[in-house]
Amino acid sequence: MNTFLTVILDGLIQASWLFIVALGLTLVFGVLKILNIAHGGFYALGAYLAATVVTMAAAHNVPPGLGFVLMLVSVAAIAAVIGLLMERGLIKLFYGRDEVVLLLVTYAVFLIFEDATKLIWGVNPIYANQPYELFGNAEFAGLFYVGYDLMLIPFSAVIGFAVWFALNRTTTGKIVTAVIHNAEMSASMGVKINRVYALAFAFGVMLAALAGGLTAPKISVQPGLSSEIIILSFAIVVIGGLGSIEGAAVGAILVGMARAASVHLLPQAELFMIYLIMAAVLMFRPEGLFRREVARRI
């Protein structure tokens, strides 16, 4: 029984931060129709920025709670600005080109970020575990968990609901949804498509960096973070369906549970289980579990 509960909680904890990363990736694809390979680089950038802010806050005797808030605000603000500049200065130049060209452009940015983080922060691991002790420990069914890990579950749920609510219940969100379904028609109705593209890309980048910042206290921040996370987030959005928020949530839960179950029961098959689930879904639902409705052209 304890093993079952451990797998469930560990799976939800992993799914929480993976969902935030995948949410940004699926949002960018839904609006811009770009599979942003650089997304993993922004995740790593957020982790490095968070580690830097936490270390500086600790050096100046800033209370851990305030340091945690400063970490989140700094990571979100810096990443959003970088994402906006990248979209306006680079991605915008390739709109209308073949999708493969945009894929290669984002892959080039991914490689640049990999080397840039090594030049700025070096290749040695960075530790920033001060926020990890902020929420204490919690006991559940005889099992002890770090409160920070459990906090990530409701935190990611709040972010997911906020994004869903903004897209489906606000005027701005309905404009973005209209662009997702038909950009040409939206432009003919007076919607500033380029502005929507820029804001959506910046917001997606901010989510990736925010997820990196949230996981920084849990891990050692070092080169290689971006490669692993882009594979996992890509698997999640493929399973759930590209462009679907609900799909990103379900895909994150499936991947998180698969990783947790593999770690506890069959460690050597951890990555294999994720690819097995992805292959099984694609066999029966090639467009993912939550297919986004597309208007039929006649």
UniProtKB/TrEMBL annotation:
Claim: Transport is one of the keywords in the record: yes
UniProt keyword terms in alphabetical order: Amino-acid transport, Cell membrane, Membrane, Transmembrane, Transmembrane helix, Transport
Protein's membrane topology: Multi-pass membrane protein
Domain of life: Bacteria
GO BP terms in the entry: amino acid transport
Keyword ATP-binding set for record: no
Record protein name field: Branched-chain amino acid ABC transporter permease
Species assigned in the record: Afipia broomeae ATCC 49717
Organism lineage: Bacteria, Pseudomonadati, Pseudomonadota, Alphaproteobacteria, Hyphomicrobiales
